[in-house]
Amino acid sequence: MRDLLDHDYEPECNRSGNTPFAEVFQARIARRGFLQGSLGAAVGGLFASTGVAHALQAGAGPELNFTPVPVDESDSFIVPEGYEAKVIYRWGDPITGAMPQFSPDNTGAEQGEQAGMHHDGMHFFPIEGEDPWQGSSTDGLLVVNHEYVEPRFLHAGAVAGQAMTAWSVPDHAGPRDPDHVLKELNAHGVSIARIREGADGEWRIVPDPHNRRITALTEMEIAGPVRGSDLVKTKFSPDGTRTRGTFANCAHGVTPWNTYMAAEENWSGAFVNNDDEMPREHARFGVRRGMSRPSWHLAADGADAYVRFDASTRADSAEGDYRNEPNTYGWMVEIDPFDPDSTPVKRTTLGRCAHEGVVFAPVADGEKVVCYTGDDARNEYIYKFVSAGTYRSGETRGEILDEGVLYAAKFNEDGTGEWLALVYGENGLDESNGFPSQADVLVNTRPAADLVGATPMDRPEWGTVDPQTRAVYFTLTNNSQRSADETDAANPRGPNPFGHIIRWHEDGAQDALTFAWDIFVIAGPHEDSADMHGEALNDDNIFSSPDGLWMDANRRLWIQTDISESVMYRGNHTVFGNNAMLAANPETGEIKRFLTGPVGQELTGVVTTPDHRTIFVNVQHPGATTSPEDFAAGNYASHWPDGGQSVPRSATVMIRRTDRGVIGA
Ligand code: FEO
Ligand code: CA
Ligand code: CA
Ligand code: CA
Asked: Exposed site from 289, 340, 485, 555, fewest CB < 10 Å?
């Protein structure tokens, strides 16, 4: 049952067998006399051979002028000396409507007017609404993804005293209490809340017409080549142009035209399909037979908005049931935080997968819009989108994303790479291989990338683009399924329990079709890690499972860790303690631990105000390590942030220097 319900379970669906250079890399290691397990030597070899580091030299890089915090296991949020941290936005804080106060007994409807659960990707939009990175540093719209729910804490009032795991669902076999289902759907999605720093220096949520909840029930448009195709026709939208809701929103993206993109990551487990034969657009993405993770389709009232999570065939045609409902998920969703009446749009050109997030390269007038997105599942791919049209500041809107080319990354063993187009009629993506249209290619992004020979990666999570060199960095969080003989140059450790960070530089303009790449750091404990010089990490910077990643305008690279609660504090992860956030200098490779979070959580979501004097980060799933017995006894592993005997709550934390200087400087 664990596989079915555990959030950290990533269904491994890649059976393509793409291992394009495992053998070559092994041969290369042998040729150069590298010893198996000699990580530093292998990495050093890569750097020497690629010249990427040379291409990225743009100065000394940013100083990391703070005393690193040590590894910690206490139930607290610890920042360096000279810094202060305050919780400003918790799960359940009221933001809109009747502004219902938080209680573990809140109803489903009340949850729809409060911050959702399990904060993830986030951006601070200065209130002027003109530019995502310029404007007020004291007043703006905080837009936050709420990735998933932990039912035992969400329904803490109703399930008190029961022995529940982090992934137990009340009445999982059905029928489910419809208000529980409503509360779970409303705790997902995205929240938009105006926040402002008062004259007293305190940040507060401000009641404001912009404040809004977007949930797993909010109506959405489908745009791009998949709009109107047979693959997305449902009883709700017989013409295949609309769907309801977004959920499993992990990381995000910020467009150059000042809108927000929410990624749909681990959505597939919410659907069930009990047909004899499951189509590849379900099977290859992890839709389950038998039972789904949350059993939303088993709500006792049989409401259409809940029944749709059962994708089994029940009617004569797709317009009469929800066999295509899973095909309306797995996209990047564009939201305009400045227009509270706007309908969110699923931009299908960016492909369908377990999107972690999307990162846009800086763009100038007359250039094509370029963005990158990773598919966070074991042995899945990294993608790049290049728009057909060119960018015009002040004119370009999200529609520019509806036409263009999606590419999948191939990392060659010699430090070069290429972008392989996922275009109907090219690279074998045609009827002869089962791809009858561009809509089919996009709905089946994973099988399409398999066919063209993309490189299976160690779970691509966040990416970021260096604002100065335009190099692209991606975290590869870990991969328990890569065996020693399946390693390759870009994923050199098998199995890979601790993850690494890869980076590349396009050969020429950002829309180039080839690139040069290297590995920035191989994460891990002292004895199994390597920085960009091949040196082992030390007490000040050992880390595991990099996930959140963002380079600020001063070029500090912020790295957030997500050691799964299933391995946290155990075995080879004991040395890392609580999940942490580190800062890195992209030029020198220096890395320092900046903060540690409370028990059982991960750090995810990071952004500064435009003046870089305030930084916001999210704490997700504190207390997730609570055992069923301790949950029943009310002994939660974390009571962060409210203390006492309270239920733990995911929350946004504001951090600044006590002298109000630039963060990290
Ligand atoms: Fe939701 Fe891949 O972290
Ligand atoms: Ca993540
Ligand atoms: Ca996680
Ligand atoms: Ca993760």
From this structure: 485
Ligand at shortest distance from the CA of 121: 2
Give yes or no for a contact between 265 and 248, defined as CB atoms under 8 angstroms apart. yes
Tell me, using a 6 A CB cutoff, whether residue 602 lines ligand 1. no
Q: Residue 495 and residue 493: Cα distance in Å, rounded? A: 6
Please give the Cα distance from 36 to 487 (Å, whole number). 11
With a 6 A CB cut-off, is 250 part of the ligand 1 pocket? yes
Structure tokens given for 87: 């919780």
Instruction: For 187-238, write each residue's pLDDT tens digit.
Output: 999 999 999 999 999 999 999 999 999 999 999 999 999 999 999 999 999 9
Asked if 116 and 87 touch (Cβ cutoff 8 Å), the reply is no
CA distance 582 to 592: 5
pLDDT tens-digit series, residues 37-71:
345 444 444 444 455 666 666 688 999 999 999 99
Cross-strand partners of 543: 524
Report how far ligand 2's centroid is from the alpha carbon of 120 (Å). 7
Asked if 529 and 579 touch (Cβ cutoff 8 Å), the reply is: no
What whole-number distance in Å separates Cα of residue 193 and Cα of residue 190?
Answer: 10
Chain centre distance of CA 659: 33
Ligand 1 neighbourhood includes 147 CB (under 6 angstroms): yes
Tokens of 228: 């109107």
pLDDT 10s digits, 104-117: 999 999 999 999 99
Tokens of 53: 């580091």
Domain at 2-657, CATH from 2.120.10.30, 2.40.240.20, 2.60.40.1930, 3.40.50.720: 2.120.10.30
Cα 176–Cα 331–Cα 151 angle in degrees, nearest 5? 25
CA angle 597, 599, 601 (to 5 degrees): 65
Residue 41 exposed, middle or buried by CB count within 10 Å (0-12, 13-18, 19+): middle
pLDDT value, residue 60? 87
- State residue 513 phi and psi, 5-degree precision: -100, 0
At residue 108, the 3 state secondary structure works out as helix
Dihedral over Cα of 441, 445, 450, 453: its sign: positive
What is the DSSP annotation of 181-206?
HHHHHHHSEEEEEEEEE-TTS-EEEE
How many angstroms is it from 621 CA to the middle of ligand 2? 12
Strands (E), 215-325: 219-223, 242-244, 249-254, 260-264
Residue 425 makes CB contacts below 8 A (sequence gap 6+) with: none
- Bridge partners, 460 (sequence order): 476
Proportion of the chain above pLDDT 90, given as a percent: 91
**Using an 8 Å Cβ cutoff, are 335 and 212 in contact?**
no
